[in-house]
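Researcher: Sequence recovery benchmark, item below. Answer with residues only.
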């Protein structure tokens, strides 16, 4: 395999690693949320004593931390804006992509 093939293989491996990291992060957050929901269900009925109130406060702190972690997952990343390439028109014919241009997806 030549250098181009090696580079393409390396890119594929990196993209696979990125997808795996994103999936693991998502799974970890989902699991943590599920555990917190279970803890909330346990406390749902009745009045809270001091121990239970401390547990509720801890759950609230965990929820806030998870929300920050979930929000931070894409901090600083903005997908690039890609403008479509202009299509040159031909004098006397409909503008490319216009309603009158039936060959290029017009109505």
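Model:
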């Amino acid at each position: 395999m030549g250098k181009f093939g090696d580079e393409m293989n390396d890119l594929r491996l990196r993209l696979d690693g990125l997808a795996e990291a994103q999936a693991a992060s998502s799974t970890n957050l989902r699991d943590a949320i599920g555990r917190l929901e279970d803890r909330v269900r346990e406390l749902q009925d009745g009045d809270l004593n001091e121990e239970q109130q401390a547990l509720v406060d801890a759950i609230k702190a965990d929820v806030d931390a998870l929300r920050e972690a979930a929000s931070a997952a894409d901090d600083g990343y903005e997908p690039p804006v890609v403008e479509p390439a202009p299509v040159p028109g031909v004098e006397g014919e409909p503008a490319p992509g216009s309603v009158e241009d039936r060959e290029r997806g017009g109505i």
